[in-house]
Automatic annotation (TrEMBL):
Residues 14-109 form the HTH hxlR-type domain. It comes from Actinomadura gamaensis. The keyword DNA-binding applies. This is Winged helix-turn-helix transcriptional regulator. Pfam families: HxlR. CDD domains: HTH_ARSR. PANTHER family: TRANSCRIPTIONAL REGULATOR, MARR FAMILY, TRANSCRIPTIONAL REGULATORY PROTEIN. InterPro entries: ArsR-like_HTH (IPR011991), HTH_HxlR (IPR002577), WH-like_DNA-bd_sf (IPR036388), WH_DNA-bd_sf (IPR036390).
Length: 129
């Protein structure tokens, strides 16, 4: 029996949510991290990736499979996803990106908040002609 993925693996305060470094699409790096410990079913991935819609998760999984980073195995009415050797080679760079985001967490959050505030202020006063 494998260890379940923690539901708070990618909580809202996770540095990966504000990191400007992306591996594939928005969810790809997190999917790769979920598969680090071995194969997982779609429903297992949904536990840790609770903020992703099933449609987006499916699209990300297909994209990762097309890129050769994960494999899809059907067995008995169940499908499991696993990292390929190529996908496993991304674990080091992803860990480095996560460490960098964690180290610069305050700066990243401040930048996101400033951009959000600037957007709110600019949309609060419609331009006049």
């Amino acid at each position: 029996m494998r260890t379940p993925l923690p539901a708070d693996m990618f909580d809202e305060l996770c540095p990966s949510s504000v990191s400007p470094i992306r591996f594939g699409d928005k969810w790809a790096g997190m999917i790769i991290r979920c598969l680090e410990g071995g194969p997982r079913r779609f429903s297992e991935l949904r536990v840790a990736l609770r903020n992703v819609t099933p449609k987006s998760l499916t699209q990300s999984l297909r994209s990762l499979e097309r890129s050769g980073l994960i494999s899809r195995h059907e067995q008995h009415r169940s499908v499991e996803y696993a990292l390929t050797p190529l996908g496993r080679s991304l674990l080091g760079p992803i860990a480095a990106a996560c460490a960098w985001a964690e180290e610069h967490w305050d700066e990243l959050v401040d930048a996101h908040e400033a951009a959000y505030q600037a957007t709110r202020e600019s949309s609060a006063y419609p331009a006049t002609a």
